């Protein structure tokens, strides 16, 4: 059920008034003016809101709601972009009401104003003060996060040195020194990092939490943890996609076990379950980013969750390696995102290029579900065909879940028959105009319909073959194979059938082998079950997990082997440079998936398969 805007505003007003907790003795007039101001504030009417808050301050100086009005006026001025004015209001508040319960809120707002005025040192100092002394957990957390981010990413060394002299309390000094150390570590300056970490550990009366963090990071740098390299596995280990996440993790664990045994290394997978939840994934991503001992992230698997986590990876400068997300433009969201899967549009383009290079294709038709994935793939396939001068004769779409797509096939068939008529006329007289051909076709249809009445046959009947399409691109859902394949054969469209990776289902293909013989499709992997490497992996996997590896176990195994192959030999591994290691890695040949990253950091290696007489043959 969707709330309207007025209901939402009423709820927000109630919540804000409850949080302000003004005295019960306030008069009705005071409350009415204040509530109106809050309502205007929440609706974005900041000018009206400021008028109401200012009215109470100037006309009712003894009001029980005076402090609440000061706070809201300062917030309103901030929202209007009047940062200097808001700052002055905050200062007047602290002068007048030094013991107010809103004191921490005012100081937090002052820090935000300093930040907007580019007075970063003052902002950090004030945020740290709030984080140290506030009794409100949420406010402490927000203030500390803003201060830490500014230290890590925005203040220069001169400003940091100035703050080091200015900050006197153990807590604020430890926060500054530790986050400065993390920044230097990400830049590869290990000597200065260790010096700062030592200062964090020796601060008198300091926080045990920051002392422990400093010791952990120092241990990582000094290889006191058996040269362990930790990679986070950010996967859906529970929830709707748990089967995918668990399978990927099993494959990854096999890869790590082999690598550690062969190379004498100690690579550790740290599991982070996001339960197939976007919110949980973002929470886990924040935990991962806060742990400097984790050098990279393997996951997530879904397109939308990967997109959200990519923003954090870019901000925190930690490499995010998604094994399965295939949406276009994902890598554009973060310079630290790597896609091991073939993007949807790239699959469509590569199939078109292969077919156009190997088969005589001058005219194409398409049929696909109406879905973002299929729209993107079909558009890429069509654009590539057009670039090479191929005619797109007809396109049809069906809604996901529809099992009867006879209407679409009939429409395609009518187009094909008309093209056959046009082609035959053009062979006789190539000077005929389209309008002339259309007129002649109408006459032809009437004659044909009269003839067909005698045999009780319709023009779009399955008895009449269509041979005018050189290729027919039909990307589908895997679940659609068993009802799409028979319909394709029934409507007697005789052409080269093309498809997407969802056709890669040996059991379904063999069941429908008489309908789709000769099908060519693009996929991101191919398993040769007779290969020695696969048999070896399968046997080891069965020994460890008591089951036979399937597609996602293979993707996890190949993907993690590729990641491990990118680690520099005999050198320290830097978290901030991990994306460079992996993007510069050599092309990788896996048991199921080949991986070759291009400049856009996505896998460019597609497999083209052909289904012939019950067998799958790799064409590329």
UniProtKB/TrEMBL annotation:
Keywords (A to Z) from UniProt: Signal
Residue ranges of every copy of the Leucine-binding protein domain listed in the record: 228-596
The keyword Electron transport is annotated on this UniProt entry: no
Chain ranges of the Outer membrane lipoprotein BamD-like domain: 29-118
A Pfam family this chain is assigned to: YfiO
InterPro entries: BamD-like, BCAA_transport, Leu-bd, Peripla_BP_I, TPR-like_helical_dom_sf
Stated family: Belongs to the leucine-binding protein family.
Name this protein carries in UniProt: Outer membrane protein assembly factor BamD
Organism field: Caldithrix abyssi
